[in-house]
Amino acid sequence: MLDRNGIARRIAQELRNGWYVNLGIGIPTLVANYIPEGISVEFQSENGLLGMGPFPYEGEEDADLINAGKQTVTMLPGGSIFDSSMSFAMIRGQHIQLTVLGAMEVADNGDIANWKIPGKMVKGMGGAMDLVASADRIIVAMSHTNRKGHSKLLPACSLPLTGVKCVKRVVTNLAVLDVTPNDGFMLVERAPGVSIREIQDATAGRLIVNGDIPEMKM
Fold first, then answer.
1. CATH class of 6-208
2. Catalytic, out of 14, 42, 46, 105
3. Catalytic site residue 46?
4. Where are the domains of the chain?
5. Is the pLDDT of residue 193 over 90?
6. pLDDT by residue (tens digit) across 69-86?
């Protein structure tokens, strides 16, 4: 199965030349480290940065240059910094082609819960609700199961929703799955060394398996 960097590397294969892409907190931030050769994209961070680059090497961090998760990042030549109102005008104006988010739960109809665990103090959902309502394509980067081994891909989310019927693709440590309009998750690829049976056992939501499912090409 894949580790966090493996999930990010696989999602980076979804990038297309010229896209504007927002990377959420957690695993999604790692995608900037794995841009395929020949692909030029603009990474946008909702705290007000366009042209975000990969993480800096140790000793080269700039404490004033951070992403939405408060991690130090780099800025590529031609990048720009602006306020949150401009950032969310980009998002709400549907100028972002792809958003990559982490999640605590994804339902087999495309619902996503990624901002609140009941009983735990949180400051709010951040920009996630704007992002899932506005981007052309939402990809979720997540582990297939939680720490107790329970599936995070469900018939319905049990946690408060961030967005409804918005997720198009999920990339986990076990598989790549698409969300179909009416029939649940469709298995697209398996992580190297992972069997279809392992994926079925780890998926609580509806799962479509058609024919031979290839392994991811990393």
1. alpha beta
2. 46
3. yes
4. 6-208
5. yes
6. 788 999 999 999 999 899
